[in-house]
Specification:
Elements lengths: L1 H21 L13 H18 L5 H31 L19 H25 L4 H22 L1
Helix pairs in contact: 1-2, 2-3, 3-4
């Protein structure tokens, strides 16, 4: 439930940020109020953090490693997700071609740095977030999971 709850919380936060703050429009391919790439991103950050914490190294080095690894992994997920959406649905939700340091259409150094910074922020606020995440009732997670699965199927069969 831990990772599933993080997935939903960050998918919803990502959707809100993109819809109302950043893009001021539609976010993601699904009908519901979630943008799964953010949920996938947080899971990767949490797993990377877990692996790095097993290393017997200085805390500062852990943070630097988390920044670098997360920036790379999240950029790869962005590229993969961008091409997958374009291939499957025939359109693009983002395009970094105009960024100075773009790495193709779906990745840019500027965004990789933002993802790295976000992972470091998560590193420091994780103890606080864990307290919130642990209070989400199981039945609520089950409901969200069912709604999410329905949304994915509806998106595949209606939008595709």
């Amino acid at each position: 439930m831990y990772y599933l709850n993080y997935f939903f919380v960050f998918s919803i936060i990502g959707h809100i940020i993109e819809s109302f703050i950043y893009y001021n429009g539609e976010s993601g391919i699904l009908f519901g109020w979630w943008t799964p790439i953010y949920g996938i991103g947080i899971i990767l950050i949490l797993l990377t953090n877990k692996l790095i914490n097993k290393l017997r190294i200085n805390e500062f080095i852990k943070v630097i490693l988390l920044f670098i690894i997360s920036a790379i992994l999240l950029s790869i997920i962005e590229v993969f997700g961008g091409y997958l959406i374009e291939w499957f649905f025939g359109f693009s939700f983002w395009d970094y071609s105009d960024y100075k340091y773009n790495i193709g259409k779906y990745a840019a150094l500027e965004m990789a740095i933002i993802w790295g910074i976000c992972s470091v922020i998560i590193y420091f606020v994780k103890p606080f977030l864990d307290k919130i995440i642990s209070k989400i009732p199981k039945y609520f997670t089950y409901i969200l999971t069912i709604l999410f699965i329905i949304d994915v199927f509806l998106t595949i069969f209606i939008k595709h």
